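Worked Example 4.2. Consider the chain below.
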Amino acid sequence: MNTPPAPHPAHPVPHGADPAARSRAVTGRRPDGRARTGAGQSAGVCLGASVAGVGLAVAGWAGAGVGLAVVTLLAAIAAVRAAVVLRAWDEPSGSGTGTA
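Applying the procedure from the previous section yields the following structure tokens:
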């Protein structure tokens, strides 16, 4: 039997702080949380290496730095946009505009 040990009752760990417990809770319903995290990290490493390689080939180390800075800036813009959209979606007023 390969079952994980139960947490000690004197030391409860919330699911948000324990990725292993969180992934055990959703097993069978959706892909494992660790698998999704690993896939995202692998995609990020591949994309970053590709951008840096192209920048290095075109303009040396400065090109690699500029390429990675541009990708980082685009990711930051996408994260802010996602936060705004999700905040508007979760508003109790139901307006969906994201403005007060």
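The mean pLDDT is 78. The chain is about 65% helix and 0% strand. Compare this with Example 4.1 before moving on.
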